[in-house]
Amino acid sequence: MRIRPISPSSLAEEIADRIAERPQDAWTRVAFDGAPAARPDELADALAEPLRLRGRAVLRVSARDFLRPASLRFEYGKTDPDAFYDDWLDTGGLTREVLARLDPGGSGEVLPSLWDTRTDRATRAPYVTVPAGGVLLLDGALLLGRWLPFDLTVHLRLSPAALARRTPPELHWTLPAYERYEHEAEPSETADLVVRMDDPKHPAIVIR
Protein backbone atom coordinates (compact mmCIF):
# COMPACT_ATOMS: atom_id res chain seq x y z
CA MET A 1 0.00 0.00 0.00
CA ARG A 2 1.29 3.45 -0.94
CA ILE A 3 0.06 6.94 -0.13
CA ARG A 4 -0.02 9.65 -2.80
CA PRO A 5 -0.46 13.21 -1.53
CA ILE A 6 -2.75 15.37 -3.64
CA SER A 7 -4.26 18.85 -3.41
CA PRO A 8 -8.02 19.15 -2.74
CA SER A 9 -8.63 20.67 -6.18
CA SER A 10 -6.63 17.96 -7.95
CA LEU A 11 -8.49 15.31 -5.97
CA ALA A 12 -11.81 16.64 -7.24
CA GLU A 13 -10.52 16.74 -10.81
CA GLU A 14 -9.15 13.21 -10.61
CA ILE A 15 -12.42 11.78 -9.29
CA ALA A 16 -14.35 13.74 -11.93
CA ASP A 17 -12.17 12.20 -14.65
CA ARG A 18 -12.87 8.75 -13.26
CA ILE A 19 -16.62 9.34 -13.25
CA ALA A 20 -16.59 10.89 -16.72
CA GLU A 21 -15.05 7.71 -18.12
CA ARG A 22 -18.23 5.80 -17.31
CA PRO A 23 -20.85 5.25 -20.06
CA GLN A 24 -22.58 8.48 -21.02
CA ASP A 25 -25.98 6.83 -21.45
CA ALA A 26 -26.11 5.45 -17.90
CA TRP A 27 -26.52 7.01 -14.47
CA THR A 28 -23.63 6.91 -12.01
CA ARG A 29 -24.30 6.76 -8.27
CA VAL A 30 -21.31 7.96 -6.26
CA ALA A 31 -21.05 7.72 -2.47
CA PHE A 32 -18.75 9.99 -0.49
CA ASP A 33 -18.51 8.13 2.80
CA GLY A 34 -16.98 9.60 5.91
CA ALA A 35 -17.58 11.01 9.35
CA PRO A 36 -18.62 14.68 9.34
CA ALA A 37 -15.12 15.56 10.52
CA ALA A 38 -13.78 14.25 7.19
CA ARG A 39 -16.05 16.68 5.31
CA PRO A 40 -17.53 14.30 2.71
CA ASP A 41 -20.12 16.95 1.86
CA GLU A 42 -17.41 19.40 0.83
CA LEU A 43 -15.76 16.91 -1.50
CA ALA A 44 -19.10 15.99 -3.05
CA ASP A 45 -19.85 19.70 -3.56
CA ALA A 46 -16.45 20.19 -5.17
CA LEU A 47 -17.25 17.55 -7.82
CA ALA A 48 -20.36 19.27 -9.14
CA GLU A 49 -18.75 21.90 -11.35
CA PRO A 50 -15.95 19.69 -12.77
CA LEU A 51 -18.55 17.13 -13.77
CA ARG A 52 -20.78 19.72 -15.42
CA LEU A 53 -17.76 20.94 -17.37
CA ARG A 54 -17.35 17.36 -18.55
CA GLY A 55 -20.90 17.32 -19.84
CA ARG A 56 -22.52 15.45 -16.96
CA ALA A 57 -25.68 16.55 -15.16
CA VAL A 58 -25.29 16.40 -11.39
CA LEU A 59 -27.68 15.83 -8.50
CA ARG A 60 -26.44 16.41 -4.95
CA VAL A 61 -28.08 14.44 -2.17
CA SER A 62 -27.11 14.08 1.50
CA ALA A 63 -27.80 11.02 3.59
CA ARG A 64 -28.65 13.33 6.50
CA ASP A 65 -31.88 14.09 4.65
CA PHE A 66 -32.80 10.40 4.79
CA LEU A 67 -32.68 9.77 8.50
CA ARG A 68 -35.50 8.03 10.33
CA PRO A 69 -38.01 9.93 12.52
CA ALA A 70 -36.86 10.87 16.01
CA SER A 71 -39.12 8.25 17.60
CA LEU A 72 -37.08 5.55 15.88
CA ARG A 73 -33.64 7.16 16.05
CA PHE A 74 -33.90 7.89 19.77
CA GLU A 75 -35.69 4.75 20.91
CA TYR A 76 -32.66 3.86 23.05
CA GLY A 77 -31.73 7.45 23.90
CA LYS A 78 -30.13 10.27 21.97
CA THR A 79 -26.53 9.15 22.52
CA ASP A 80 -26.59 5.41 21.87
CA PRO A 81 -23.71 4.58 19.47
CA ASP A 82 -25.20 1.25 18.38
CA ALA A 83 -28.51 2.89 17.48
CA PHE A 84 -26.57 5.58 15.62
CA TYR A 85 -24.83 2.85 13.63
CA ASP A 86 -27.80 0.55 13.02
CA ASP A 87 -30.97 2.61 13.15
CA TRP A 88 -30.50 6.23 12.20
CA LEU A 89 -30.19 5.99 8.41
CA ASP A 90 -33.37 5.11 6.53
CA THR A 91 -31.68 2.75 4.07
CA GLY A 92 -35.04 1.60 2.73
CA GLY A 93 -36.16 5.14 1.94
CA LEU A 94 -32.80 6.06 0.43
CA THR A 95 -32.85 3.00 -1.80
CA ARG A 96 -36.51 3.28 -2.77
CA GLU A 97 -36.58 7.02 -3.47
CA VAL A 98 -33.09 7.60 -4.85
CA LEU A 99 -30.73 4.73 -5.61
CA ALA A 100 -33.13 2.19 -7.11
CA ARG A 101 -34.62 4.87 -9.36
CA LEU A 102 -31.19 5.16 -10.99
CA ASP A 103 -30.84 1.44 -11.63
CA PRO A 104 -30.57 0.43 -15.31
CA GLY A 105 -34.13 0.74 -16.58
CA GLY A 106 -35.12 2.96 -13.65
CA SER A 107 -37.34 6.00 -13.92
CA GLY A 108 -34.63 8.56 -13.19
CA GLU A 109 -37.13 10.48 -11.02
CA VAL A 110 -35.43 11.00 -7.67
CA LEU A 111 -36.58 12.42 -4.36
CA PRO A 112 -33.68 14.67 -3.23
CA SER A 113 -34.73 14.68 0.43
CA LEU A 114 -37.16 12.72 2.56
CA TRP A 115 -37.03 13.78 6.22
CA ASP A 116 -36.26 17.07 7.95
CA THR A 117 -34.73 16.24 11.32
CA ARG A 118 -35.15 19.82 12.57
CA THR A 119 -38.94 19.68 12.30
CA ASP A 120 -39.18 15.88 12.44
CA ARG A 121 -41.46 15.93 9.43
CA ALA A 122 -41.33 14.84 5.83
CA THR A 123 -39.70 17.47 3.63
CA ARG A 124 -42.36 17.11 0.91
CA ALA A 125 -39.66 17.82 -1.65
CA PRO A 126 -40.72 17.40 -5.29
CA TYR A 127 -39.19 14.69 -7.43
CA VAL A 128 -36.48 15.74 -9.86
CA THR A 129 -35.49 13.99 -13.07
CA VAL A 130 -31.87 13.00 -13.57
CA PRO A 131 -31.14 12.79 -17.31
CA ALA A 132 -29.35 9.81 -18.82
CA GLY A 133 -25.66 10.03 -18.07
CA GLY A 134 -26.34 12.11 -14.97
CA VAL A 135 -24.37 11.65 -11.77
CA LEU A 136 -25.69 11.32 -8.23
CA LEU A 137 -23.26 12.68 -5.63
CA LEU A 138 -24.32 11.38 -2.22
CA ASP A 139 -22.47 12.25 0.97
CA GLY A 140 -22.94 10.65 4.35
CA ALA A 141 -21.49 8.64 7.20
CA LEU A 142 -21.49 4.87 7.75
CA LEU A 143 -22.75 4.23 4.21
CA LEU A 144 -20.78 1.13 3.26
CA GLY A 145 -21.54 -2.45 4.23
CA ARG A 146 -25.30 -1.86 3.91
CA TRP A 147 -25.78 -3.32 0.41
CA LEU A 148 -26.67 0.08 -0.98
CA PRO A 149 -26.39 0.06 -4.80
CA PHE A 150 -23.57 2.49 -5.58
CA ASP A 151 -21.50 2.53 -8.77
CA LEU A 152 -18.47 4.20 -7.18
CA THR A 153 -17.60 4.57 -3.51
CA VAL A 154 -15.12 7.03 -2.04
CA HIS A 155 -14.21 6.56 1.62
CA LEU A 156 -12.67 9.51 3.45
CA ARG A 157 -10.60 7.96 6.20
CA LEU A 158 -9.54 9.56 9.45
CA SER A 159 -7.16 7.92 11.89
CA PRO A 160 -8.79 7.30 15.29
CA ALA A 161 -6.74 10.12 16.79
CA ALA A 162 -7.69 12.58 14.05
CA LEU A 163 -11.35 11.57 14.26
CA ALA A 164 -11.41 12.15 18.02
CA ARG A 165 -9.54 15.44 17.70
CA ARG A 166 -11.77 16.86 14.99
CA THR A 167 -15.11 15.62 16.35
CA PRO A 168 -16.84 18.15 18.62
CA PRO A 169 -16.91 17.03 22.28
CA GLU A 170 -20.70 16.86 22.27
CA LEU A 171 -20.48 14.21 19.53
CA HIS A 172 -17.78 12.04 21.09
CA TRP A 173 -20.49 9.53 21.96
CA THR A 174 -20.51 8.62 18.21
CA LEU A 175 -16.84 7.53 18.21
CA PRO A 176 -17.58 3.89 19.22
CA ALA A 177 -19.90 3.64 16.20
CA TYR A 178 -17.09 4.65 13.85
CA GLU A 179 -14.74 2.19 15.55
CA ARG A 180 -17.32 -0.55 15.05
CA TYR A 181 -17.74 0.56 11.42
CA GLU A 182 -14.03 0.13 10.74
CA HIS A 183 -14.11 -3.42 12.07
CA GLU A 184 -17.43 -4.60 10.63
CA ALA A 185 -17.78 -2.80 7.30
CA GLU A 186 -14.02 -2.41 6.64
CA PRO A 187 -14.56 0.67 4.45
CA SER A 188 -10.84 1.08 3.81
CA GLU A 189 -10.85 -2.35 2.16
CA THR A 190 -14.18 -2.29 0.35
CA ALA A 191 -14.39 1.27 -1.02
CA ASP A 192 -13.34 1.83 -4.63
CA LEU A 193 -11.21 4.80 -3.59
CA VAL A 194 -9.81 5.61 -0.16
CA VAL A 195 -8.59 9.09 0.70
CA ARG A 196 -6.81 9.91 3.93
CA MET A 197 -8.22 13.13 5.39
CA ASP A 198 -6.35 13.57 8.67
CA ASP A 199 -5.52 17.05 7.35
CA PRO A 200 -8.32 18.17 4.99
CA LYS A 201 -5.99 20.70 3.38
CA HIS A 202 -3.56 17.91 2.48
CA PRO A 203 -5.49 14.78 1.46
CA ALA A 204 -3.73 11.66 0.24
CA ILE A 205 -4.99 8.84 -1.99
CA VAL A 206 -4.37 5.31 -0.76
CA ILE A 207 -2.95 3.16 -3.56
CA ARG A 208 -3.57 -0.53 -2.90
From TrEMBL:
Q: By its UniProt entry, which InterPro entries does this protein fall under?
A: P-loop_NTPase (IPR027417)
Q: Which GO terms describe its molecular function?
A: kinase activity
Keyword terms: Kinase, Transferase
Q: What is this protein called?
A: Uridine kinase
